[in-house]
Protein backbone atom coordinates (compact mmCIF):
# COMPACT_ATOMS: atom_id res chain seq x y z
CA UNK A 1 0.00 0.00 0.00
CA UNK A 2 1.51 3.40 -0.89
CA UNK A 3 1.99 5.63 2.12
CA UNK A 4 1.05 2.87 4.55
CA UNK A 5 0.71 4.80 7.83
CA UNK A 6 1.57 1.68 9.85
CA UNK A 7 4.82 0.71 8.09
CA UNK A 8 6.92 2.55 10.67
CA UNK A 9 5.85 -0.09 13.22
CA UNK A 10 7.61 -2.85 11.21
CA UNK A 11 10.77 -0.76 11.14
CA UNK A 12 10.56 0.06 14.85
CA UNK A 13 10.09 -3.63 15.68
CA UNK A 14 13.13 -4.53 13.55
CA UNK A 15 15.18 -1.98 15.48
CA UNK A 16 14.02 -3.52 18.77
CA UNK A 17 15.15 -6.97 17.55
CA UNK A 18 18.50 -5.66 16.34
CA UNK A 19 19.23 -4.07 19.74
CA UNK A 20 18.37 -7.34 21.55
CA UNK A 21 15.53 -5.51 23.29
CA UNK A 22 12.74 -7.71 21.94
CA UNK A 23 10.57 -9.31 24.62
CA UNK A 24 7.62 -11.68 24.56
CA UNK A 25 5.80 -13.49 27.37
CA UNK A 26 6.11 -17.20 28.05
CA UNK A 27 3.30 -19.23 29.58
CA UNK A 28 4.19 -20.52 33.05
CA UNK A 29 2.38 -23.11 35.17
CA UNK A 30 0.93 -22.27 38.60
CA UNK A 31 3.18 -20.12 40.84
CA UNK A 32 5.76 -21.75 43.09
CA UNK A 33 9.46 -22.28 43.77
CA UNK A 34 9.41 -24.79 40.90
CA UNK A 35 7.43 -23.96 37.76
CA UNK A 36 6.94 -25.53 34.35
CA UNK A 37 7.45 -23.86 30.99
CA UNK A 38 6.63 -25.93 27.91
CA UNK A 39 7.08 -29.12 29.86
CA UNK A 40 10.44 -28.09 31.38
CA UNK A 41 10.63 -27.92 35.18
CA UNK A 42 12.51 -24.85 36.33
CA UNK A 43 13.66 -23.51 39.67
CA UNK A 44 11.92 -20.16 39.85
CA UNK A 45 14.12 -17.20 40.79
CA UNK A 46 12.17 -14.70 38.68
CA UNK A 47 8.97 -14.17 40.63
CA UNK A 48 7.74 -11.33 42.86
CA UNK A 49 5.80 -13.82 45.00
CA UNK A 50 8.20 -13.10 47.87
CA UNK A 51 6.26 -14.91 50.58
CA UNK A 52 5.14 -17.75 48.33
CA UNK A 53 1.47 -16.84 48.80
CA UNK A 54 0.23 -16.70 45.21
CA UNK A 55 -0.54 -20.41 45.22
CA UNK A 56 -1.42 -20.68 48.92
CA UNK A 57 -4.51 -22.80 49.57
CA UNK A 58 -6.01 -20.17 51.90
CA UNK A 59 -5.82 -17.43 49.28
CA UNK A 60 -7.29 -19.75 46.65
CA UNK A 61 -10.14 -20.73 48.94
CA UNK A 62 -10.86 -17.10 49.86
CA UNK A 63 -10.96 -16.19 46.16
CA UNK A 64 -13.29 -19.09 45.34
CA UNK A 65 -15.64 -18.29 48.22
CA UNK A 66 -15.80 -14.61 47.24
CA UNK A 67 -16.49 -15.53 43.63
CA UNK A 68 -19.34 -17.82 44.73
CA UNK A 69 -20.84 -15.03 46.81
CA UNK A 70 -20.24 -11.98 44.63
CA UNK A 71 -19.65 -13.35 41.11
CA UNK A 72 -16.64 -12.82 38.89
CA UNK A 73 -16.78 -9.17 37.86
CA UNK A 74 -17.78 -6.09 39.79
CA UNK A 75 -19.78 -4.70 36.83
CA UNK A 76 -18.95 -1.05 37.31
CA UNK A 77 -16.80 1.58 38.95
CA UNK A 78 -16.73 1.68 42.75
CA UNK A 79 -18.84 4.85 42.76
CA UNK A 80 -21.60 3.28 40.64
CA UNK A 81 -22.15 -0.50 41.00
CA UNK A 82 -18.65 -1.89 41.59
CA UNK A 83 -18.31 -1.44 45.36
CA UNK A 84 -18.54 -4.53 47.60
CA UNK A 85 -18.20 -4.87 51.40
CA UNK A 86 -14.98 -6.81 50.69
CA UNK A 87 -13.33 -3.68 49.31
CA UNK A 88 -13.73 -1.78 52.56
CA UNK A 89 -12.64 -4.84 54.51
CA UNK A 90 -9.43 -4.93 52.48
CA UNK A 91 -8.89 -1.18 52.81
CA UNK A 92 -9.25 -1.42 56.57
CA UNK A 93 -6.83 -4.36 56.66
CA UNK A 94 -4.25 -2.38 54.65
CA UNK A 95 -4.65 0.69 56.88
CA UNK A 96 -4.24 -1.58 59.90
CA UNK A 97 -1.06 -3.19 58.51
CA UNK A 98 0.34 0.21 57.56
CA UNK A 99 -0.90 1.97 60.72
CA UNK A 100 -2.43 4.73 58.61
CA UNK A 101 -5.83 6.34 59.01
CA UNK A 102 -7.22 4.91 55.80
CA UNK A 103 -6.42 3.21 52.49
CA UNK A 104 -7.86 2.96 49.01
CA UNK A 105 -7.68 -0.05 46.70
CA UNK A 106 -7.03 0.35 42.97
CA UNK A 107 -7.18 -2.24 40.18
CA UNK A 108 -3.37 -2.34 39.98
CA UNK A 109 -0.35 -0.68 41.51
CA UNK A 110 0.35 0.98 38.19
CA UNK A 111 -3.09 2.60 38.22
CA UNK A 112 -2.65 3.60 41.87
CA UNK A 113 0.48 5.57 40.97
CA UNK A 114 -0.99 7.16 37.85
CA UNK A 115 -4.17 8.25 39.60
CA UNK A 116 -2.57 9.41 42.82
CA UNK A 117 0.05 11.59 41.19
CA UNK A 118 -2.46 13.03 38.72
CA UNK A 119 -4.76 13.92 41.63
CA UNK A 120 -2.10 15.42 43.91
CA UNK A 121 -0.36 17.76 41.47
CA UNK A 122 -1.06 19.67 38.28
CA UNK A 123 0.33 22.27 35.90
CA UNK A 124 1.44 24.73 38.58
CA UNK A 125 3.34 22.09 40.55
CA UNK A 126 6.70 20.35 40.68
CA UNK A 127 7.55 16.64 40.91
CA UNK A 128 11.04 15.53 41.93
CA UNK A 129 11.66 11.83 41.39
CA UNK A 130 14.55 9.40 41.67
CA UNK A 131 15.88 8.55 38.21
CA UNK A 132 15.42 4.81 38.93
CA UNK A 133 11.76 5.14 39.92
CA UNK A 134 9.25 2.69 38.50
CA UNK A 135 7.63 3.43 35.15
CA UNK A 136 4.25 4.02 36.81
CA UNK A 137 5.65 6.92 38.85
CA UNK A 138 7.22 8.47 35.78
CA UNK A 139 4.08 8.11 33.71
CA UNK A 140 2.00 9.43 36.59
CA UNK A 141 4.14 12.55 36.48
CA UNK A 142 3.48 12.96 32.76
CA UNK A 143 -0.27 12.43 33.24
CA UNK A 144 -0.39 15.07 35.96
CA UNK A 145 0.95 17.84 33.72
CA UNK A 146 3.31 18.99 36.50
CA UNK A 147 6.93 19.90 35.80
CA UNK A 148 8.87 16.70 36.51
CA UNK A 149 12.59 16.61 37.20
CA UNK A 150 14.54 13.42 37.92
CA UNK A 151 17.45 13.51 40.37
CA UNK A 152 20.37 11.05 40.11
CA UNK A 153 19.70 7.79 41.95
CA UNK A 154 19.51 8.31 45.74
CA UNK A 155 21.56 11.50 45.41
CA UNK A 156 20.40 13.66 48.31
CA UNK A 157 22.80 16.50 47.53
CA UNK A 158 21.44 16.80 44.00
CA UNK A 159 17.88 16.67 45.33
CA UNK A 160 18.58 19.40 47.88
CA UNK A 161 20.09 21.54 45.15
CA UNK A 162 16.99 21.10 42.97
CA UNK A 163 14.73 21.94 45.89
CA UNK A 164 16.73 25.06 46.76
CA UNK A 165 16.69 26.17 43.13
CA UNK A 166 13.11 25.41 42.13
CA UNK A 167 10.83 24.83 45.11
CA UNK A 168 9.69 28.45 45.37
CA UNK A 169 8.74 28.66 41.69
CA UNK A 170 5.89 26.20 42.19
CA UNK A 171 2.67 25.93 44.17
CA UNK A 172 2.99 22.35 45.45
CA UNK A 173 5.92 19.97 45.29
CA UNK A 174 5.65 16.18 45.30
CA UNK A 175 8.74 14.08 45.88
CA UNK A 176 8.36 10.50 44.63
CA UNK A 177 10.49 7.46 45.26
CA UNK A 178 10.42 3.68 45.20
CA UNK A 179 11.29 2.43 48.69
CA UNK A 180 12.90 -0.74 47.34
CA UNK A 181 13.99 -0.05 43.78
CA UNK A 182 12.46 -2.69 41.58
CA UNK A 183 15.34 -3.27 39.19
CA UNK A 184 18.25 -2.81 41.63
CA UNK A 185 16.90 -4.04 44.94
CA UNK A 186 18.37 -1.24 47.04
CA UNK A 187 16.56 0.88 49.62
CA UNK A 188 15.87 4.61 49.21
CA UNK A 189 17.21 6.91 51.96
CA UNK A 190 13.72 7.38 53.40
CA UNK A 191 14.54 9.24 56.66
CA UNK A 192 16.60 11.83 54.76
CA UNK A 193 13.91 12.18 52.07
CA UNK A 194 11.31 12.75 54.77
CA UNK A 195 13.53 15.40 56.37
CA UNK A 196 13.91 17.19 53.04
CA UNK A 197 10.16 16.98 52.42
CA UNK A 198 9.60 18.57 55.80
CA UNK A 199 12.25 21.27 55.30
CA UNK A 200 10.97 22.32 51.86
CA UNK A 201 7.28 21.74 52.54
CA UNK A 202 6.84 18.97 50.00
CA UNK A 203 4.60 15.92 49.90
CA UNK A 204 6.37 12.55 49.65
CA UNK A 205 4.88 9.58 47.79
CA UNK A 206 6.66 6.33 48.67
CA UNK A 207 6.17 3.29 46.44
CA UNK A 208 6.27 0.25 48.73
CA UNK A 209 5.51 -2.28 45.96
CA UNK A 210 8.54 -4.48 46.72
CA UNK A 211 8.66 -3.81 50.45
CA UNK A 212 5.13 -4.56 51.63
CA UNK A 213 5.01 -7.92 53.38
CA UNK A 214 8.80 -8.11 53.12
CA UNK A 215 10.37 -5.35 55.24
CA UNK A 216 9.59 -4.17 58.77
CA UNK A 217 8.87 -6.06 61.96
CA UNK A 218 5.21 -6.58 61.02
CA UNK A 219 5.77 -6.66 57.25
CA UNK A 220 4.33 -3.16 56.76
CA UNK A 221 7.24 -2.17 54.53
CA UNK A 222 10.31 0.06 54.36
CA UNK A 223 8.67 2.98 56.15
CA UNK A 224 8.20 0.71 59.15
CA UNK A 225 11.71 -0.76 58.80
CA UNK A 226 13.23 2.75 58.77
CA UNK A 227 11.25 3.84 61.85
CA UNK A 228 9.42 6.54 59.88
CA UNK A 229 5.79 5.62 60.51
CA UNK A 230 5.11 8.83 62.36
CA UNK A 231 6.35 11.09 59.55
CA UNK A 232 3.72 12.37 57.13
CA UNK A 233 3.83 10.67 53.73
CA UNK A 234 1.58 8.96 51.24
CA UNK A 235 2.36 5.31 50.66
CA UNK A 236 1.33 3.14 47.80
CA UNK A 237 1.95 -0.48 46.96
CA UNK A 238 0.72 -3.48 45.11
CA UNK A 239 -1.31 -6.51 46.12
CA UNK A 240 0.46 -8.51 43.42
CA UNK A 241 3.89 -9.22 44.87
CA UNK A 242 4.31 -10.46 48.48
CA UNK A 243 0.52 -10.41 48.88
CA UNK A 244 0.08 -12.91 46.05
CA UNK A 245 -3.03 -11.32 44.54
CA UNK A 246 -3.70 -8.49 42.08
CA UNK A 247 -4.44 -4.81 42.60
CA UNK A 248 -2.82 -1.75 44.16
CA UNK A 249 -3.40 0.51 47.14
CA UNK A 250 -2.67 3.94 48.55
CA UNK A 251 -2.49 4.45 52.32
CA UNK A 252 -2.26 7.62 54.34
CA UNK A 253 -4.24 10.28 56.14
CA UNK A 254 -8.04 10.03 56.05
CA UNK A 255 -8.44 13.33 54.18
CA UNK A 256 -5.88 12.39 51.55
CA UNK A 257 -7.66 9.09 50.87
CA UNK A 258 -11.04 10.81 50.76
CA UNK A 259 -9.63 13.32 48.31
CA UNK A 260 -8.29 10.52 46.07
CA UNK A 261 -11.72 8.88 46.07
CA UNK A 262 -13.00 12.09 44.56
CA UNK A 263 -10.13 13.03 42.30
CA UNK A 264 -8.02 10.03 41.19
CA UNK A 265 -9.15 9.30 37.62
CA UNK A 266 -7.78 5.74 37.61
CA UNK A 267 -9.95 4.93 40.62
CA UNK A 268 -13.12 6.80 39.64
CA UNK A 269 -13.31 5.74 35.99
CA UNK A 270 -12.37 2.08 36.15
CA UNK A 271 -14.15 -1.07 37.26
CA UNK A 272 -13.78 -2.11 40.91
CA UNK A 273 -11.24 -4.80 41.82
CA UNK A 274 -12.65 -8.33 41.38
CA UNK A 275 -14.10 -10.09 44.44
CA UNK A 276 -11.57 -12.92 43.98
CA UNK A 277 -8.53 -10.61 44.02
CA UNK A 278 -9.94 -8.59 46.91
CA UNK A 279 -10.63 -11.64 49.07
CA UNK A 280 -7.23 -13.21 48.28
CA UNK A 281 -5.49 -10.00 49.37
CA UNK A 282 -7.46 -9.93 52.65
CA UNK A 283 -6.35 -13.52 53.33
CA UNK A 284 -2.74 -12.61 52.47
CA UNK A 285 -2.64 -9.67 54.88
CA UNK A 286 -3.87 -11.94 57.68
CA UNK A 287 -1.02 -14.36 56.87
CA UNK A 288 1.54 -11.52 56.83
CA UNK A 289 0.29 -10.56 60.30
CA UNK A 290 0.03 -14.08 61.75
CA UNK A 291 3.03 -15.87 60.21
CA UNK A 292 6.16 -13.75 60.68
CA UNK A 293 8.16 -16.96 60.24
CA UNK A 294 7.55 -16.68 56.48
CA UNK A 295 9.35 -13.35 56.44
CA UNK A 296 12.14 -14.83 58.56
CA UNK A 297 12.55 -17.69 56.06
CA UNK A 298 12.63 -15.23 53.17
CA UNK A 299 15.45 -13.25 54.78
CA UNK A 300 17.38 -16.44 55.62
CA UNK A 301 17.22 -17.34 51.94
CA UNK A 302 18.31 -13.85 50.91
CA UNK A 303 21.30 -14.09 53.27
CA UNK A 304 22.28 -17.54 52.02
CA UNK A 305 22.12 -16.40 48.36
CA UNK A 306 24.22 -13.30 49.07
CA UNK A 307 26.79 -15.31 51.04
CA UNK A 308 26.91 -17.88 48.24
CA UNK A 309 27.56 -15.20 45.61
CA UNK A 310 30.38 -13.80 47.69
CA UNK A 311 31.84 -17.25 48.29
CA UNK A 312 32.07 -18.05 44.58
CA UNK A 313 33.37 -14.57 43.75
CA UNK A 314 30.52 -13.17 41.64
CA UNK A 315 31.63 -9.58 41.15
CA UNK A 316 28.79 -7.81 39.37
CA UNK A 317 26.24 -8.04 42.19
CA UNK A 318 24.59 -4.66 42.81
CA UNK A 319 24.10 -3.45 46.40
CA UNK A 320 20.80 -4.91 47.62
CA UNK A 321 18.63 -4.45 50.72
CA UNK A 322 15.91 -6.82 49.60
CA UNK A 323 15.11 -10.19 48.04
CA UNK A 324 15.97 -8.61 44.66
CA UNK A 325 19.59 -9.40 43.80
CA UNK A 326 20.97 -8.19 40.47
CA UNK A 327 24.16 -9.23 38.69
CA UNK A 328 25.40 -6.73 36.15
CA UNK A 329 26.59 -8.00 32.79
CA UNK A 330 28.50 -6.47 29.90
CA UNK A 331 25.62 -5.99 27.47
CA UNK A 332 22.19 -7.17 26.38
CA UNK A 333 23.56 -10.08 24.30
CA UNK A 334 25.60 -11.39 27.26
CA UNK A 335 22.71 -11.24 29.70
CA UNK A 336 20.42 -12.98 27.23
CA UNK A 337 22.98 -15.75 26.76
CA UNK A 338 23.39 -16.08 30.54
CA UNK A 339 19.61 -16.34 30.97
CA UNK A 340 19.44 -18.97 28.21
CA UNK A 341 22.23 -21.07 29.77
CA UNK A 342 20.61 -20.89 33.21
CA UNK A 343 17.30 -22.01 31.71
CA UNK A 344 19.08 -24.93 30.08
CA UNK A 345 20.42 -25.79 33.53
CA UNK A 346 16.85 -25.70 34.91
CA UNK A 347 16.80 -22.22 36.47
CA UNK A 348 14.48 -19.35 35.61
CA UNK A 349 15.79 -15.81 36.16
CA UNK A 350 14.96 -12.48 34.54
CA UNK A 351 17.44 -11.18 31.94
CA UNK A 352 16.70 -7.46 32.22
CA UNK A 353 18.14 -5.04 29.71
CA UNK A 354 17.61 -1.60 28.24
CA UNK A 355 15.26 0.13 27.81
CA UNK A 356 13.84 -1.27 31.10
CA UNK A 357 17.11 -0.51 32.91
CA UNK A 358 20.20 1.55 32.07
CA UNK A 359 22.55 -1.48 32.17
CA UNK A 360 21.92 -5.17 31.43
CA UNK A 361 21.64 -7.50 34.38
CA UNK A 362 20.37 -10.84 35.66
CA UNK A 363 17.64 -10.10 38.18
CA UNK A 364 17.27 -12.83 40.80
CA UNK A 365 14.39 -12.79 43.27
CA UNK A 366 14.31 -14.95 46.35
CA UNK A 367 11.14 -16.32 47.95
CA UNK A 368 10.24 -17.70 51.39
CA UNK A 369 9.24 -20.91 49.64
CA UNK A 370 12.72 -21.66 48.31
CA UNK A 371 14.73 -24.28 50.17
CA UNK A 372 18.39 -23.68 51.12
CA UNK A 373 19.27 -26.46 48.64
CA UNK A 374 17.52 -24.60 45.81
CA UNK A 375 19.46 -21.43 46.67
CA UNK A 376 22.67 -23.48 46.59
CA UNK A 377 21.80 -24.85 43.12
CA UNK A 378 21.40 -21.26 41.87
CA UNK A 379 24.79 -20.27 43.30
CA UNK A 380 26.47 -23.30 41.68
CA UNK A 381 24.92 -22.48 38.32
CA UNK A 382 26.06 -18.86 38.56
CA UNK A 383 29.55 -20.10 39.39
CA UNK A 384 29.48 -22.23 36.23
CA UNK A 385 28.46 -19.14 34.23
CA UNK A 386 31.34 -17.19 35.73
CA UNK A 387 33.73 -19.97 34.70
CA UNK A 388 32.45 -19.55 31.12
CA UNK A 389 33.30 -15.84 31.33
CA UNK A 390 29.68 -14.69 31.70
CA UNK A 391 29.53 -13.74 35.37
N1 LIG B 1 5.70 0.14 41.53
C1 LIG B 1 6.75 -0.68 41.46
C2 LIG B 1 8.02 -0.26 42.13
C3 LIG B 1 6.65 -1.89 40.79
O1 LIG B 1 7.71 -2.71 40.71
C4 LIG B 1 5.42 -2.25 40.19
C5 LIG B 1 5.22 -3.58 39.48
N2 LIG B 1 6.24 -4.02 38.71
C6 LIG B 1 4.35 -1.37 40.28
C7 LIG B 1 4.53 -0.17 40.96
C8 LIG B 1 3.04 -1.66 39.62
O2 LIG B 1 2.32 -2.59 40.37
P1 LIG B 1 1.25 -3.54 39.67
O3 LIG B 1 1.99 -4.70 39.13
O4 LIG B 1 0.29 -3.88 40.76
O5 LIG B 1 0.60 -2.74 38.57
**Order of SSEs:** HEEHHEHEHEHEHEHEEHHHHEHEEEH
Head-to-tail CA distance between termini: 48 Å
- Classify the helix fraction into a percent range: 40-55%
Instruction: Describe the main β-sheet briefly.
Output: 7 strands, mixed
Kindly provide the radius of gyration, computed on alpha-carbon positions and rounded to a whole number of angstroms.
Answer: 21 Å
Q: Name the CATH architecture of the largest domain.
A: 3-Layer(aba) Sandwich
What is the number of E strands?
13
Which overall shape is indicated by the principal axes computed on the Cα atoms?
A: globular
Physical arrangement of strands within the biggest beta sheet: 3-9-8-7-6-4-5
Q: Outline the low-pLDDT stretches.
A: none
CATH topology of the largest domain: Aspartate Aminotransferase, domain 2
CATH homology-level superfamily of the largest domain: Type I PLP-dependent aspartate aminotransferase-like (Major domain)
The hetero compounds bound to this protein are: 4'-deoxy-4'-aminopyridoxal-5'-phosphate
The number of helical segments is: 14
Report the CATH C-level class of the largest domain: Alpha Beta
In terms of DSSP E residues, the strand content is 15-25%
Structural class designation:
alpha/beta
Quote the average pLDDT. Answer: 96
Question: What is the total domain count?
Answer: 2
Amino acid sequence: MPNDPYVWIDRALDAIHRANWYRSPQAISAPGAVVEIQGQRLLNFASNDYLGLAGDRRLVEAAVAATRTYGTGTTGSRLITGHRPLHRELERAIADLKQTEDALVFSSGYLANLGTIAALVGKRDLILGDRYNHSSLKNGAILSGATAIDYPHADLEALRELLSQHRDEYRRCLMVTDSIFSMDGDLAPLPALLDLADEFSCMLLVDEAHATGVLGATGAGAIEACGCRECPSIQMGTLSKALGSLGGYVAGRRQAIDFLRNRAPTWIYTTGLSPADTAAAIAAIAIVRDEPERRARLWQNVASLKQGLERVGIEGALPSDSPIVCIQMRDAATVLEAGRLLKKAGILVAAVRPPTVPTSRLRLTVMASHTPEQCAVLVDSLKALKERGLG
